[in-house]
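Q: Can someone sanity-check these two? First one:
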Amino acid sequence: MKTLIEPFKIKSIEEIPITTREQRERYLANAFYNPFFLRSEYVTIDLLTDSGTTALSSKQWAGLMDGDEAYAGSRSYYKFEDAVKEITGLKHIIPTHQGRAAEKILFTIAAKPGIVIPSNSHFDTTRGNIEYAGAEAIDNLVDVGSKPEVEAPFKGNMDLEKLRKLILEKGRENIPLCMLTVTNNTSGGQPVSMQNIRETKALCKEFGIPLFLDACRFAENAYFIKKREPGYENKSIKEIAQEMFSYCDGATMSAKKDGLSNTGGFLALNDDAMAEQAKVLLIITEGFLTYGGMTRRDLEALAQGFEEVLNENYLEYRIGQVKYLGDKLLEAGVPILQPTGGHAVYLDAKRFAPHIAPENFPGQSVLCELYLISGVRAVEIGSLMFGKADTNGNSQSPEMELVRLAIPRRVYTKSHIDYIAEACIETYNNREKLRGMEITHEVEYLRHFTAKLKFI
């Protein structure tokens, strides 16, 4: 059949707000032109993030009722631990309330001034936790990964030549670990090939550097490997995921993505000494070893979510829904990052609004107009999120200026996606009216969450 259907039925619904342009102009101004300050009741379709916005299944809701809320030794934790170990094969599973908490624990142990943490591309909270510890986060993305208009099957890959050069330049003693983000969110939700994971591991092993996966979208990455990498077409998603994790020494995960849940995460380690330090920090900052800042019913939901996310029918629908939106935009001439990734469509703000300089945040201007037109909320991934000033105070911008339309899992139907496409097309047709922006207030770390802006 040609029609890709949702592989589920809807049992419960939630009303979404329908607002007027006049109302949205007021709401956006009161939010300082930053979508993070918008109240959810002012948002018609919310594409700010795919993190923690999943619709739970009936089996997950049943699991919530069955959660064992014991402070220590909860049976719900052991179900969660078994599910994670089955996929990752890693020895120590340390629960946290979300991914950035796992990153905080890891980099409190591993990062300090003078230390370098390489990755294919660090995402915002990973970079923030590294830099907050005084270390340096360095991206080593393959060159094609920063060319939105170029099609390639694995644009999220680590550039191994860049990584080797970095290790030789900085010294192995200053690199306690290497991160590999799957899928690569910053570069457009693009997958990393199994070959690249394997070769990154080999290079790290050559220098005695542990390899960690940022694994929040591991199942989506495994699906792309199955569909795009020769030799994996007959393997199950679970088998591919297990091989991915077999090459790593540890992992962080925001389970709010491919855990199909609204909260939760983990730090997984093989190193006993590091795990001992991490468990002490967990108790100090998050909670006891068998709940880690979560209700135990959330651990039940996660254990079930890790089973459901490996279902190939679900992943076909999930990736297909994102591709459907991307194809509609391409047909209308809207510039996006190609090919579409696993969890989002990324508008290419550089081509969308070439008259706006990077230091005036073209992506933020695009998403503001998108909201005013439609009530659709998106997020900027460009100079607001990753821009910096050099030692002379001059603005330094990332290679790409993107607007991410992150699709929540199992939440929106085809008609919602059609509405999003229409809104993006109308915004693009009005692109000459877009104006640059400037920051009126910012903080030192992760400024995009709380920055206040205005139009120039």
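And here is the second, same format, sequence then tokens:
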Amino acid sequence: MRKPALVLAFVLSSAAAFSQYQGFVIKGDLSALKAPAEMVYLNYYLAGQSYQDSARVKDDHYRFAGNLMEPVQASLRVKYKESRVAQTPVPFNSKRDYAVVFLEPSEITVTSVDSFSNVTVAGSKADDEYRKLQLMAKPYDDQLALLYVKMSAAKKENNPEAAKALEQMVDSIDALANEKVYGAYVKAHPSSPLALYALRNWAGYEVDAEKVEPVFKTLPSSARNTLAGKDMADKIAIAKKTGIGQMAMDFTQNDTLGRPVSLTSFRGKYVLVDFWASWCGPCRAENPNLVRAFNKYREKGFQVLSVSLDRPGAKDRWLKAIHDDKLEWYHVSDLQFWNNAVARQYGIEAIPQNLLIDPAGKIVGKNLQGEKLEQKLASIYTN
């Protein structure tokens, strides 16, 4: 289940034809809000860097200014004045106090309608296209929201069969939405300022180079040569190297005792390279499945090499998670979070992810979670 089951690295910026930094201005209007606002915070990513800014609200208006090379997805968050009665901060509500806006080098007006999150935007062609995409995606998003509620209820009722069936429905609708919304959009509008954004959503975090590269090449060179375009080209290049049937790229990283462990040292055995982290909830939830598969096939030669994306200074948490989850196999990490050298080498932007590598060093499986891993191993060791 791609959307809720992955911990994502970051939100990638969109792109269009801008060859150098140009100025943008955001003029915000909060006069329709009932609660008095004090501050507004702006956040966006550009060229792998996070940019944050804040603006004080004056007379129900706020203003931001900056420079961009290309259109970029940004978030706006409001902070209200403390309650006059209780003198306490107003708690943050993401559905009410958070808005997404696509910026581009222009003067952009953002007007909050009946809540801070419900906005109208003028002056950004990229945002105009974003709103169209949101409308296209809404029927699917509404279906997914209902399924998530039902799935949560099934889990609380300890009904794994119902939860699994609902999860499969989520996967099916999610895949359909990707094709019908993002895939259809980028194919029909390759010159749109939102083409790369749509392509990135359609491609997902496990890029299929054979599917994505031909569509990427239909985009104009002005888009492909932007920062986001070059980033997408890099992802496609890595996907070609890490596809099924490719020889796995060798790497060496230190284990929990500081001893170097290389991937090639596992030649002659099937090995699952598992990307995870102690802070990753979905990874920890998947660990019991991995433990079960490992214990079932370890005597037949099956090995696991876990690569942790734990943060700098978090070795104790990494070791505790290994102990608590009973992960009795090989573990390596450079404790560099999303900058883990192996994760970057393999283009990992979301976890958990894994690759199954055969005795000759060839990739024979990817993202084998849950029953899929045991089914794959059963077919291997039975044959």
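A (reply): Looked at the second one. The mean pLDDT is 91. The radius of gyration is 23 Å.
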